[in-house]
Amino acid sequence: MARQLDEQIVGRFPVGRRLRVLDVGMGLGTQALRLARAGHQVTGLEQDATMVAAARESLAGEPEGIRERMRIIEGDGRDTGVHFLPGSFDVVLCHGVLMYVEEPDPLLAGLARMLAHGGLLSLLVRNGDALAIRPGLSGDWSGALAAFDTTACLPHSRTDSNGGTPTRLGLDVRADRLKDLTSTLAGIGAPLHAWYGVRVFTDTAADGAEVPADMETLLAVEEKAGRTDPYRGVAALLHLCGVRG
């Protein structure tokens, strides 16, 4: 997903430009820190106090220049209008958050308002069109059958969507369908520009599985599948990129 995001940033903004980035629901701050290290001015917004503390601890270990480029705010992503002025950011990330929000449209509309003209909105969501894949491949036939007609998922562990450690919350989560989000993004003035699949082949890996020796090849396969039909359509997650018009 980081490679996909970098592709969109490089294709939209001049090389070397320091972007104003907002990471809503930043989790442990993996993506926010990565972008701060790349030279961008990053604001992370997270409502879970445990994750905020972990992100601040990670930031404290960074060089001064990176610490100065990143700030962390404890707060709800639905309250962006309280913290920031409209058009304050070039890039807004919302990764692994919509699955916890029962009514995501107001949140998305608020995120779009945070974007400057031509700004990039990056969403990572559960793929509501592929919920039967994992139980089906695991031999859970009743679970697979039930998954065809719902966008509700099993209780979920909150994971930093950018590669961090899972935090067990036992929360019920929901998924989104590509066609529905495409319509929503058009309606809030940030129409879909590109989309990718994430975790096409690796979603069935057991929690805590060892990193394989051929990790680079694995990533290359996932990256290729995530941009290739029909594979990307059955990914566990979808990465959608909208552009503020």
TrEMBL record:
<feature type="domain" description="Methyltransferase type 11">
    <location>
        <begin position="22"/>
        <end position="122"/>
    </location>
</feature>
<keyword id="KW-0808">Transferase</keyword>
<dbReference type="GO" id="GO:0032259">
    <property type="term" value="P:methylation"/>
</dbReference>
<dbReference type="GO" id="GO:0017000">
    <property type="term" value="P:antibiotic biosynthetic process"/>
</dbReference>
<dbReference type="Pfam" id="PF08241">
    <property type="entry name" value="Methyltransf_11"/>
</dbReference>
<protein>
    <submittedName>
        <fullName>S-adenosylmethionine-dependent methyltransferase</fullName>
    </submittedName>
</protein>
<dbReference type="GO" id="GO:0008757">
    <property type="term" value="F:S-adenosylmethionine-dependent methyltransferase activity"/>
</dbReference>
<dbReference type="InterPro" id="IPR029063">
    <property type="entry name" value="SAM-dependent_MTases_sf"/>
</dbReference>
<keyword id="KW-0489">Methyltransferase</keyword>
<dbReference type="InterPro" id="IPR013216">
    <property type="entry name" value="Methyltransf_11"/>
</dbReference>
